[in-house]
Amino acid sequence: MVMSKYLKSILFLSIICILCTSFPAFGLEQVRTDKLDILAAEVSPQPVRPGEELLVKVSVANYDDTTVNNIILDVENQFPLILRFSEKEYGVKSISNSSFRIERISSNGNVEINYNFLIDPEARTGTYHVTFKLSDGNSVFVTRTISIEVEGTPEIALMNSSFSKTGISPGDDFVLYTTVESVGSGNAKNIKISLQIDDVPGLVAVNDNSAFIHTLDAGEEKEIAFKLSLGKDADITSYNIPISIRAVDDTESLNISSVETIGFEAKGKAKIDIANVKNSPTMPEKGTELTQIIRIENVGEGEARSVKVSLVDLDMSGTKEAFIGKLDADDDAPATFSFIPQKSGDQEYTALIEYEDDFGNHSVEQKLTMNVTGTSPYLILLVIIVLLVLGYTAYTHKDRLISKNKK
């Protein structure tokens, strides 16, 4: 009897085991996970630009002959993809904005989910990725990474512009240096930088007035240079150099065009010299007041300011400094001095001319010699004659008085 009950129990358990192995359990455990896949049904637009929206439609496919129940689809996105919202089919439940529970996929069927992303406006040209994962909530059994091509918007700027000379004057050759930098979010190619100086009077390009750069990725830079010449007759004024920039993006679907201006101030370089020296009287004499006029001329291209002339090492009493002030290019002005020579002979002295122009303060020295004569022999003779006449007159007057008294 006991043995009979024991046999019945064994028989019952055996039947249960057979039933468990003969019929699949409800759920994912009986489905071959190698028959599941994640497909990119649609990715648009491609490439996508920063600030634009991107649609990624994925299809979860079941290639098995059995139904799949209760699987979870997760999405992992990184910069520059920002997940905004998702659209799902019936039978798909939201766990979170980036996670969904697919309640059922029929045999050889599929379920589609749409993901809407925003591309960060700061994104640069490059290949980025978004990853989808299928799991049962614990173990991941399918992973699919989809590549996203982002085409940034290129922008070219001229940076750190400078000139080979700190002061540029008419007649000078000089070099303009500038750095071409890709400051946008996209790569640029076929870059052409051109000087637009046809309407800038007096300024010409010594060599080519254009420079070419094949490619510049976002953030890259390259220095270029242009050799220029400012004509001798050019005005002393401000000059603006228009520079045009043309390029295309990597896809050659976007044209870039802009104009920047680099300016400089043409400086005037004065050159001061002595045109002539005139004395009055022409033959200076010892002890006689003398007026000397030194004519100062500006033979440079720029104006001279605060022009002052001083007579140095001149051993004479009188006025030895003269202030002229401003002296334009190709202009002259007198510096007038008045003094009395104290001794005769050759008098050596220096004319010191001080002035300033656009380049700073300057001084010029020029040696001068003045011959001073002694007392004129004609003057001595005249004095002797006058004394003789006075003496003779006094003598004859005295003689007349004596003759008159005798009478």
From TrEMBL:
Gene3D superfamilies cross-referenced by the UniProt entry: Immunoglobulins
Protein origin, superkingdom: Archaea
UniProt cross-references to Pfam families, sorted A to Z: CARDB
Transmembrane segments: 378-397
Matches recorded under InterPro entries: CARDB, Ig-like_fold
Chain ranges of the CARDB domain: 277-358
Protein name listed in UniProt: S-layer domain-containing protein
Species the sequence originates in: Methanolobus tindarius DSM 2278
